[in-house]
């Protein structure tokens, strides 16, 4: 038998394989709430403009509400033969209310319908990502405030570079995640326009009111070009691009937590709630949540590449290729939200091991730059010469198997005879971080200012 919705010109029904490749109901049933919201807005507008009667609109409204509660209760029988969520809902509406159901699709096409549903869904995810990021930033601020002056090694090339503070390191991620947050906020502004009423591609001859449906669905305005409205998925790509950047940030932080929680580093202890054991090695406590967060970028950026590749080269307007947009975005969104929530939980629960951080900060000649700076400041050496003198003293300490503050004054003076007892004040890690008071620097003082600034900004 031919299709109930578009079978007029067809004598035969589809091959089973055709049905299998064509149907999207297996995944686009996630758009049910958005689809019903869009249809309700459309029906109300059709009545307000006199295109359908008030009584038909009322029957449609009640029918759609019944369908929504059936779906929410898990009582709705989704049918693959009916292809997608749009036709499943409309067919059920016909069962429930009869003829008025057939008037709902006046001045509308599945092309503007799906574009509308999907925009509404992506908009919700943007809001969820924004909330997830706010929670994560909150957890980072708490860590930063508690450890504003705790000393730890700062690295470049993963080699000890200079001492920094725990708070400063946490606040670096606050900056990154807040840029992610602002990217999502920007994207929302750009994408919040309504495709509804673009119809198949050219608009419609019915006297529809697109402002009215746009407003009812929380959009700022209708999209200005009907071809564009049904053709582009740039809003989904923008979500995926921003999700990818955010997942990349999460991945870097997760990598640090994996390293920091190892026995070799012991910088942090992750809570039992966010760790797992081994089935064979009883001593193990593994940072699985961090590892999975580190990995999520794979599927999220994969989705970005997949959808970009689907969209490239598509002629205007709608092509069925675009049905492939949803699973990528669903999967990326689900995993981004999960990663954000897991990271927030881990950060909230983790304990920084102050002693281990401090010991590591003091090792590896981390105050060599402070020594060089002291030679410049106190003895007037050109920086390049100070660098050379300090390098020689590091080599001496390395040969002796000790650190810079462990060298005696006479040993230090083999580097430069002008060195005095005073120099020891800059060789300690606490003085080192406390001295870095330039704007954006690592001192506890600057960190506390930034914590206060962000708290105020997010309030
Ligand atoms: N299931 C389709 C999709 O996801 C809905 C739009 C179908 N439009 C059409 N002209 N066949 O894109």
TrEMBL record:
InterPro entries: Arg_succ_lyase_C, Argininosuccinate_lyase, Fumarase/histidase_N, Fumarate_lyase_CS, Fumarate_lyase_fam, Fumarate_lyase_N, L-Aspartase-like
Subcellular location: Cytoplasm
Coiled-coil regions listed in the entry: none
Gene Ontology terms for molecular function: argininosuccinate lyase activity
Record SUPFAM superfamilies: L-aspartase-like
Residue ranges occupied by any Argininosuccinate lyase C-terminal domain in the UniProt entry: 365-434
Keywords (A to Z) from UniProt: Amino-acid biosynthesis, Arginine biosynthesis, Cytoplasm, Lyase
UniProt catalytic activity: 2-(N(omega)-L-arginino)succinate = fumarate + L-arginine
Any one Gene Ontology BP term: L-arginine biosynthetic process via ornithine
One cellular-component annotation, GO: cytosol
Signal peptide: none
Fumarate lyase N-terminal domain location: 8-302
Pathway: Amino-acid biosynthesis; L-arginine biosynthesis; L-arginine from L-ornithine and carbamoyl phosphate: step 3/3
EC number: 4.3.2.1
Family assignment from sequence similarity: Belongs to the lyase 1 family. Argininosuccinate lyase subfamily.
HAMAP family named among the record's database cross-references: Arg_succ_lyase (MF_00006)
Protein name listed in UniProt: Argininosuccinate lyase
């Amino acid at each position: 038998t031919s299709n109930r919705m578009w079978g007029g010109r067809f004598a035969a029904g589809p091959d089973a394989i055709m049905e299998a490749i064509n149907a999207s109901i297996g995944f686009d049933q996630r758009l049910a709430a958005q689809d019903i919201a869009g249809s309700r807005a459309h029906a109300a507008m059709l009545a307000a403009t006199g295109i359908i009667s008030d009584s038909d609109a009322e029957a449609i409204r009640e029918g759609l509400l019944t369908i929504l509660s059936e779906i929410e209760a898990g009582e709705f029988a989704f049918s693959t033969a009916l292809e997608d969520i749009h036709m499943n809902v409309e067919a059920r509406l016909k069962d429930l209310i009869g003829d008025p159901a057939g008037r709902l699709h006046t001045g509308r096409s599945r092309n503007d319908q799906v574009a509308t549903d999907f925009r509404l869904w992506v908009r919700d995810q943007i809001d969820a990502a924004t909330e997830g990021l706010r929670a994560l930033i909150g957890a980072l601020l708490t860590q930063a405030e508690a450890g504003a002056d705790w000393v730890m090694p700062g690295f470049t090339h993963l080699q000890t570079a200079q001492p920094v503070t725990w708070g400063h390191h946490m606040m670096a991620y606050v900056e990154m995640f807040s840029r992610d947050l602002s990217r999502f906020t920007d994207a929302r502004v750009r994408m919040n326009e309504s495709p509804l009423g673009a119809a198949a591609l050219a608009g419609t001859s019915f006297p529809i009111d697109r402002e009215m449906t746009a407003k009812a669905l929380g959009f700022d305005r209708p999209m200005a070009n009907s071809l564009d409205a049904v053709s582009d998925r740039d809003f989904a790509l923008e979500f995926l691009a921003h999700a990818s950047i955010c997942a990349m940030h999460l991945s870097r932080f997760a990598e640090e937590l994996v390293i920091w929680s190892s026995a070799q580093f012991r910088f942090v202890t992750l809570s039992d709630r966010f760790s797992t054991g081994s089935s064979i090695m009883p001593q193990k406590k593994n940072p699985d949540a961090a590892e999975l967060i580190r990995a999520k970028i794979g599927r999220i950026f994969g989705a970005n590449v997949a959808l970009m590749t689907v969209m490239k080269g598509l002629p205007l307007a709608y092509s069925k290729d675009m049905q492939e947009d949803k699973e990528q975005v669903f999967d990326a969104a689900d995993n981004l939200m999960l990663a954000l929530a897991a990271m927030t939980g881990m950060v909230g629960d983790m304990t920084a091991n102050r002693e281990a951080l401090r010991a590591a900060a003091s090792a590896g000649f981390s105050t060599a730059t402070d020594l060089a700076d002291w030679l410049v400041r106190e003895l007037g050496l050109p920086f390049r010469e100070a660098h050379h003198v300090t390098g020689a003293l590091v080599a001496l300490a390395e040969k002796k198997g000790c650190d810079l503050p462990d060298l005696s004054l006479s040993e230090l003076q083999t580097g430069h005879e002008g060195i005095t007892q005073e120099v020891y004040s800059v060789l300690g890690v606490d003085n080192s971080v406390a001295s870095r008071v330039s704007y954006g620097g690592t001192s506890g003082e600057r960190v506390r200012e930034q914590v206060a600034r962000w708290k105020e900004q997010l309030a």
